[in-house]
Specification:
CATH class: Alpha Beta
Largest sheet: 7 strands, mixed
Shape: globular
CATH topology: Glutaredoxin
Structural class: alpha+beta
Order of helices and strands: EEEHHEHEHEEEEH
Distance between the termini: 28 Å
Number of strands: 9
Radius of gyration: 14 Å
Strand content: 25-35%
Number of domains: 1
CATH architecture: 3-Layer(aba) Sandwich
CATH superfamily: Glutaredoxin
Number of helices: 5
Length: 156
């Protein structure tokens, strides 16, 4: 399934950091900020998570839910949340099926080595479950504010 702005976002079910199974469709009636990131406890991912944490109340005011997705297991998500006091759920996509469905599981290069991993990306899904906006190859600095501004101007 390909993902396309203006079309229904692919539904999925993943284990969440609260121990529950979470479906994207559980959030119909709310805007969803679905962000994919490579790995808990790494510098860029920590900065991004903390930026979302710091803007959490502003997203909530716009009836938006934040969901973070990485290949890390739930136990690692729990430690990440506790360490940085994250007020939103992190979802464990250990087999990277959802990342593949959203087209963010990519061949990457680092220090001459090639490997597959998450390409940092954010998808904003409207209250009807349609993909409203996508941000691919995200640079962390200023990204959360841009996503918040998009929801404020386009979806509220």
């Amino acid at each position: 399934m390909s993902i396309e702005v203006g079309k229904q976002a692919p539904d999925f079910e993943l284990k969440a950091s609260n121990g529950e199974e979470v479906k994207l469709s559980d959030y119909r009636g709310k805007n969803v900020v679905l962000y994919f990131y490579p790995k808990d406890m790494t510098p860029g991912c920590t900065t991004e998570a903390c930026d979302f944490r710091d803007q959490h109340a502003n997203f909530s005011d716009l009836d938006a839910v934040i969901l973070g997705v990485s290949p890390d297991p739930v136990e690692r998500h729990e430690k990440f949340i506790a360490k940085h006091e994250l007020p939103f759920l992190l979802l464990a996509d250990e087999d990277h099926k959802v990342a593949e469905e959203y087209g963010v599981w990519k061949l990457k290069k680092n220090f001459g080595k090639e490997y597959y991993g998450i390409e940092r990306s954010t998808f904003i899904i409207d209250k009807e479950g349609n993909l409203a906006k996508e941000y691919r190859k995200v640079r962390v600095k200023g990204h959360v504010e841009a996503a918040l501004e998009y929801i404020r101007e386009e979806l509220s």
